[in-house]
Each structure stands twice: as C-alpha cells, then as structure tokens.
Design a protein that fits this description.
The protein is an alpha+beta fold. It has two domains: 146 residues, Protein Transport Mog1p, Chain A; 163 residues, Protein Transport Mog1p, Chain A (3-Layer(aba) Sandwich). The chain is built from eight helices and 19 strands. The strands form four sheets. The chain has a seven-stranded antiparallel beta sheet, sandwiched between helices. It has a seven-stranded antiparallel beta sheet with strand order 13-14-15-19-18-17-16. Strand 13 and strand 14 form a beta hairpin.
Length: 346
C-alpha cells in the first residue's frame, strides 16, 4: 500500500494514496472533511476552536456518539460503542495533547481519537469493513496525525495537489473539480493612514491643473489575496493557441484578461526548461499617473499601490497548468516563490 502526506487547516496525517476528498464543510476554525477510497468512507476529520484550557473530551465524545446514532438510526443498524480505547502505546504521542480513544461497530467498524492541542479540539475516525485487517492502517494514520496550526506554512492537499501557504493566509473558498482545482486565500492588510493635509493638497493641485476631479481612491490596497489553480489537461487548454509564438502566454492573456486589467506589468518567459514558465509582476495604475507635482508624488508614496504577481507553468509530465496569483501583498514575489516551490507537479 502506498502512502502520502495529507494536510488541511493545519492538521497533517499520512493516508493511503487511494483515499481522496469526498466531503467538505466549514472553515479553518471549525470544519469537517471526509475521505473515501472509491468503495466506502475511510476517514472523517472534525476540528473546532476552543478557548478552554482543559475541555471535557468525554462530553465532546458524547455529542459525537449522538451524531453517529442519529446517522445510522435511519438505516436500522444496531450499534455498539466503546470509549477509553488505547491503540497507541508510545508516550511521545501524548506529549502536549490530551487524547481520548474510542471505537464503535455496526455494519462497519471504526476507531477514533479525540485530542486537544493548543486551541483546537480534533476528532479523527478511521472506518473499515468488519472482517478487514485494518489495524495496521489505523495505527499508521493515528501515529502520524499532528496539529501544525502554528507552523509558518499550512499544508493543503486535494487530488494529488499539495501546496504550502504562509499561515497568515486563511482559506476563503475552494473548487475541487475533475479538471480544475482552486484554493483562494485572504490575509488582513497592514494598517496605514494618509495625512489629511497632504491628501487635500494633492486633490486641490489636481483640480487646478487637470480640471474637475470626481473622486480619488485614498483607501488602502486590497487585503492580501493569494490563489492557486490547477487546470487540466493542458493540451486541451492550449489547443486554440498552438500556432502562437508562446501558447502559454496567449492562453493566460485571454483567460485572465479581466484580472490584469488596470495593472501595468512586466512579463518574463522561460520556455527552455522542462516546464514552460511565465512570471508577471506589476502594479495598479492610477488616475494621476504622469502628474509631475510633488504633493501627488508624496501621496503616491504614502498610499501604496496594489501589487500584482502571477507565476504559472505548463507541466508537460502531468499535462497540467498551474497558476499562482498574489494581489495586494507587499512581498508578493517572496510569497509566490515559496508557494511555487512547495508544489511538486510530477
């Protein structure tokens, strides 16, 4: 059996490569996911933020058993439950976390753990058939699970895609389709304020020189946004552009025409490597670009422009296109580079 590292919302564990996402709800603070192997559900994971230093795990387990009973009551399945089931004997596993083991059996059987670490309660449950030799699988999953919510990077996994994202970026939405994956993140912007005198002086100067000014946006840049997308198959995506000088760039300019509108940017293309790569770095254009007066230049320095960066590549081996976009981030280049390095496309 082949295994892989799976990550979601700061939780990491090893799973068989045949298990994939089949159910998902909630967010990084409180959520649920399920993994199936094509035949049946194999793993359920629930997590929730808590402010309690010592939450009552038995009370949490009572509520979880109620949920299981409610689910299987409709099927008329007889269930039996056990708590304080200790499959793991290594003392190291229990360091810095409070753990409670459990099991239940109906037409399938399951072993699970509830543990409290940091500010989160996590429930992991592995399911199998009644006559299946699944204990080694359960032990490996349980022994590998860690809560890395405070790590510098958060691992996210789905359908063969793994990416590491700086922890300040929180997952806001995702699309997990057969030919398209999207992970979209957001981070809060740093506060800044434009001095009122400078802002008024710049507006008055523009009015005297360029005529009426209806409005000028003095608001801070957009909150930091980061997205990772995977398209496939690439040969289909690029099919309409195969006669152009650079099919990848032609496809990108068409696909992302709306996203790059209003930005000035430089393009760097690298088609000599095994994977064709394209990088775009730019900044938001503004109404007063080209006005040479010092108050306007001072205003421009104080009100930072929204930065935009794209990094994309065509992985020939996997026949997929990967697109990383960062907007509104002061260190866009460093962020995008780190995320790109975390993705192994083949």
């Amino acid at each position: 059996m082949d295994w892989t590292l799976f990550g979601w919302a700061g939780i990491q564990l090893e799973i068989p490569t045949t298990w994939e996402l089949s159910g998902l709800s909630g967010d990084q603070k409180t959520g649920y996911l399920r993994l199936d192997d094509g035949d049946m559900p194999r793993l359920e994971l629930k997590w929730a933020h808590t402010r309690r230093k010592k939450p009552d795990l038995h009370a949490t387990l009572d509520e979880y058993f109620k949920l299981i009973r409610k689910t299987y009551k409709r099927k008329g399945t007889e269930l039996s439950f056990r708590r304080n089931v200790n499959l793991i004997k290594e003392d190291e596993f229990f360091e810095e976390r409070n753990v409670l083991g459990f099991s239940w059996k109906g037409d399938i059987r399951a072993n699970g753990l509830i543990f409290h670490a940091g500010k989160r309660i996590t429930i992991v449950q592995v399911m199998g058939r009644l006559k299946e030799n699944w204990r080694p699988t359960v032990l490996r999953v349980f022994q590998s699970i860690v809560d890395r919510g405070d790590a510098p990077q958060t691992l996210w996994s789905a359908y063969g895609l793994k990416l590491g994202v700086p922890k300040e970026y929180k997952l806001e939405r995702q699309k997990l389709l057969s030919g398209y994956l999207l992970f979209a993140f957001g981070a809060k912007p740093a506060r800044f304020q434009i001095p009122i005198k400078i802002a008024k002086l710049a507006v008055n100067r523009l009015r005297r020189t360029d005529g009426p000014v209806e409005s000028i946006d003095f608001s801070p840049p957009d909150r930091g946004r980061l997205s990772v997308e995977r398209y496939g198959p690439a040969e289909v995506m690029l099919g309409d552009y195969k006669d152009t000088e650079n099919p990848l760039e032609a496809w990108f300019r068409t696909k992302y025409a709306k996203a790059i509108r209003g930005y000035g940017f430089e393009v760097t293309s690298d088609i000599d490597t095994a994977d064709e790569r394209l990088t775009l770095i730019g900044e938001q254009t503004r109404l007063y670009d080209g006005v040479p007066f010092s108050p306007v230049l001072m205003l421009d320095k104080l009100s930072k422009r929204t930065a935009l960066m794209f990094h994309l590549w065509h992985c020939h081996h996997s026949n997929r296109i990967y697109v990383i976009q960062s907007i509104g981030s002061n260190n866009a280049h460093s962020t995008v580079q780190k995320v790109a390095e975390s993705i192994k496309c083949h």
